[in-house]
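Below is how a single chain appears once it has passed through the pipeline. First comes the sequence as given, then the structure the pipeline wrote out for it. We keep one example in the README because the format questions we get most often are answered faster by looking than by reading.
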Amino acid sequence: MPRRPFGRGGDPVSIVTLGGWHSVARTALEKVHESESIRLMHAALDEGINFFDNAWDYHDGYAEEVMGRALSVDGKRNRVFLMSKNCERDYAGSLSNLEDSLRRLQTDRLDLWMFHECNYDNDPDWIFERGAMRAALEAQQAGKVRYIGFTGHKDPRIHAKMLGKPHLWDAVLMPINIMDAQYRSFLNEVVPRCREIGAAPIGMKGFGGGWPGGRILERLGHRAEITPENLLRFNLSQPTVSQVVGIRDMAQLRVAIEVARNFKPMPEDEQNALLAAVHLEAGDGRYETFKSTTEHDGPHHRRQHDFAVA
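Resulting structure:
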């Protein structure tokens, strides 16, 4: 499994990251049996995926609990670069999120703690003004957090605002896919800035959402060039450290492993052909509604900003 150095820290992380949300559920309402989730996580680790993703709010904490039980076996936690995410913007809430995540994940530290879903224009200000950043720095000093970063899927402008705050970020998680390159592009506007400061750029939403069910695959999968393999290879060919993939079962894991193990960067002409093939659809964001609507925003964050929860 190819690995790349994680930002300034240099930790070797797999080019594919196991997504925490999808590894325990097929849909928001349908969890898979816990034993199947644990088997999937163990198989991913045994196949060389050492970067695991999670978040405090995924399935109301269930995703962290299952991952914690999976990693508590035979010292597996020490083989994983473990990321989870903080959903609060204030000091006390952030510390509470961290303690919940550590308890659920059965660990004494997170390798990467991310401010989750910086999707609203005032999120960057809230994180610094309400004490969340102070909590993260104290947690880092106490050894409970190694690296600090942030995530978001809405607008590169918000990421730019976070990058302009008085903190040298370690990592940034953002949408990376064939549509993004041509609509509110994180690839073009945020990844270069991350590289300038030595932050690790990490991709997500490579299929336009989950797999299956992501809008790109769901609506364009009938085209010969729009396959999970081609899309993932395109994503891995970008100047990122890793791509979070929402792997739900062993069949999807085998596809991701096969692409990653045999990965060779997609030549520029092939990338351009893929971009040209979706140019019409990409330009208006119809397959990236997580950028233009609140329908993909987590309910916890909608409530923070007084938006209706579906």
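Strands lie at 3-6, 11-14, 16-18, 51-53, 81-86, 110-115, 145-151, 171-175, 200-204, 242-245.

See the next section for the split statistics.
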